[in-house]
Write a structure and sequence with these properties.
With 331 residues, the protein is of the alpha+beta class. The chain is 46% helix and 20% strand.
């Protein structure tokens, strides 16, 4: 109502001003002539209607346009509604699936963490008891096998692994990495008495339930890091430190070769002999140091489980960095 009155008054004054301005320019105008009073009343009442009509017309157009836009918006919603339902359903299912997977992953990680903590407690408890030191013999066995790898005399592996065995007629071999593509690693495989090839070697190899059996099984499980590697697979390359003399085998990918003597001295001071601890009931813990250009000197702890039938399984328990080093090379 207030807006209507304001528009009316403003419109009237505008119209009146225009009339007064234009009046003196009219010819034969007698200013002394009086106009009937009702003409002024009609003029005052009706004059602003022209501008009011324009204002109402603009308001009407604005309201109509707004209604049309709203109707068009509803039309788009109605047209796209059948497609939005499956999209929303897919998003809800994906979100729910992601939440379930995240929950499972966190639960699995928590379970693995708890298992590793118990394993380390078990290891320290077993280490506190008197146990035989086989580190010298184990180092000799491992260094001999590394020499055979360097000579590419893979077929003689089992001759030096006295505490591991294969089914009668089966043999252990190596498929060397191919120098194609972005990277490849060499693989151990078993050839059965029937001539079949299987890369799941632990389906065939049995180990003595002993410290020596656990060590030899550990070495063979880590051979993939020592066997020839090609290009990107060199991220997995390791030089195992079975004794202080093995520091001479450290090679740097970096061009800063002058660092090598310093690194070798530091590593020699930090490494310890490989250790196998018997935790009873076919459970063993192997601790051994290795060098990698992508991490430095690492001391790993691996749980080796040997069943009554000699079947072997492994669990990586811990990896502790003793000397940090990154070569800065990217393949």
């Amino acid at each position: 109502m207030k807006i209507t009155i304001i528009v009316y008054v403003v419109s009237w004054f505008i119209f009146l001003a225009v009339r007064i301005i234009n009046s003196p320019f009219r010819k034969n105008r007698d200013f002394s002539e009086k106009q009937p009073w009702y003409k002024y009343a009609i003029f005052i009442a009706i004059a602003p209607l022209a501008i009011l009509i324009i204002a109402c017309s603009l308001i009407y157009e604005f309201i109509t346009e707004k209604k049309e836009k709203k109707a068009a918006k509803y039309a788009i919603v109605i047209a796209t509604a059948p497609w939005s339902v499956p999209i929303i359903a897919f998003w809800l299912v994906s979100s729910l699936k992601e939440k379930i997977e995240t929950k499972k992953r966190l639960k699995r990680e928590a379970k693995e963490k708890a298992y590793k903590q118990r394993a380390m407690q078990e290891l320290y408890a077993a280490m506190s008891k008197p146990h035989e030191d086989h580190s010298f013999v184990h180092a000799m066995t491992a260094q001999t096998l590394v020499g055979k790898i360097n000579e590419k005399d893979y077929d003689s592996f089992m001759q030096y692994l006295d505490h591991l065995s294969l089914p009668e007629g089966a043999s252990l071999h190596v498929e060397e990495c191919s120098h194609e593509g972005h990277g490849d690693e060499s693989k151990l495989f078993v050839e059965t008495s029937e001539g079949e090839i299987d890369f799941n070697i632990w389906d065939y190899i049995k180990a003595d339930n002993s410290i020596d059996g656990a060590w030899e099984a550990f070495f063979l499980s880590k051979a993939k890091h020592i066997l020839p590697l090609w290009w990107h697979a060199n991220y997995n390359s390791r030089t195992y430190m079975y004794s202080k003399e093995d520091t001479d085998s450290i090679q740097l990918f970096s061009k800063s070769k002058e660092q090598l003597p310093i690194i070798q001295r530091n590593v020699k001071r930090l490494i310890s002999a490989p250790e196998v601890v018997d935790a009873a009931n076919g459970k063993y813990y192997v601790r051994c140091c290795y060098w990698t250009n992508f991490g430095g000197l690492i001391k790993e702890t691996v749980q080796v489980l040997i069943s009554a039938e000699g079947k072997v399984s492994f669990n990586d328990i811990e990896g502790t960095t003793l000397y940090h080093y990154k070569c800065g090379v990217f393949f």
